[in-house]
Amino acid sequence: MADIVKIVDGKAQVGDNPIVLFIEGDGIGPDIWRASQAVFDAAVDKAYDGKRKIEWKEILVGEKALNQTGEYMPQESLDLIKEYSLAIKGPLTTPVGGGIRSLNVALRQIFDLYACVRPVKWYKGVPSPMKRPDLFDIVLFRENTEDVYSGFDYQAGSPEALKIIEAVNSLNPDKQLPHINTTGIGIKPISAEGSKRLIKSSIEYAIKYGRKKVHLIHKGNIMKYTEGSFTDWGYELAKAEYADRVITEEEVWDGADPGDKIILGNRIADNTFQQLLLRPDEYDVLATTNLNGDYLSDAAAAQVGGLGIAPGANIGDNQAIFEATHGTAPKYAGQDKVNPGSVILSGVMMLEFMGWSEAAKLIEEGLERAIEKKTVTYDFERQMEGATLLKCSEFGQAIVENMPVKV
Ligand code: NAP
To answer: What is the DSSP string of 296-347?
Structure first.
């Protein structure tokens, strides 16, 4: 009998035969999904000798949904996510025009998946532009529901933009927006509630996985009451709820021993970009606002080999969706060519979230060994001396063949 997964306060309750939803994705999605599902099933079977098994259930979102139902995001699919809680997805085309800004952003907002979690680390053998990519091992928590993504975005000259400009100009006669009819307006809401729950999940993660530091990344030097307050609320939370687990960077600046406490610091976002390039090993868990997180996660992924193998998760209190971070790369669709690593490593995150870390470990090791042997897809092959070019599905098989006998 298959079990329904429950997620309570962001934590999964999973039986031995959980139903997990999948969205194949558009473009390269079907190729990648086929390769990935085979890897997940092999790992679970091997890790638990057939005693555990995922029951995969497809839900339609994106172009496949449009073709079959006339809608990009049918209500039935949303109902299934609500009921079954846990899903993994390939990339989705962003519809051009129409009412939907982005299917990905919509899913995050509908299910209030407020924590976008992106681990970025280097796997041995992956081509990287860095001299020491091995020093890189961070987990980025990006707030997913607020900031300039919350959809208050008004075209220049629209009634909404004009109204807001009028209101702003009425606040202070000495400080006016000068171009009333030709100024577009976007609003950047950042709340204490939104900031604290995201920062809380980053601290909880650091505690659970034995991470040593959490840095709050912000642009509070300029945006004091949004980005600056994000940081202040983070410290407030740490003091109120984690006084016995967290110590601030300021408290250990004189060289004091933090003991087994997690060090909480903060960095300005622009500085963080150069710090991650120059001193990556000083960073561990990062928590940040939506737009900073968007930029930082792609830049960080590039340092360790690019988006082709960058995994991600969107986690809320009651639902979680794990996803490829790259797009649909339409020019490669149906060619069984691209790297399935991003969905496969998102599956590794999902298995860990489910508490099935033995299966997760098998996949990670299988992937690393396959890359070390230089049996890789085109994106890595073109950057490696003497590599063997594999198709998408063959790379999946190589991961399975390279899984260790025992973990
Ligand atoms: P993209 O699909 O990520 O592709 C850009 C390039 O990245 C590809 O041409 C390819 O590079 C490389 N690439 C992407 N996935 C790869 C993989 N699995 N293996 C190896 N290389 C990979 O970005 P895009 O062309 O800007 O976006 C296409 C569509 O995807 C748009 O509709 C966009 O909105 C959507 N999108 C969806 C998501 C999502 O669902 N999470 C995210 C981003 C974009 P080379 O050409 O160098 O081989």
So the answer is: HHHHHHHHTT-GGG-EEEEE-SS-EEEEESS---GGGTTSS-S--HHHHHHH
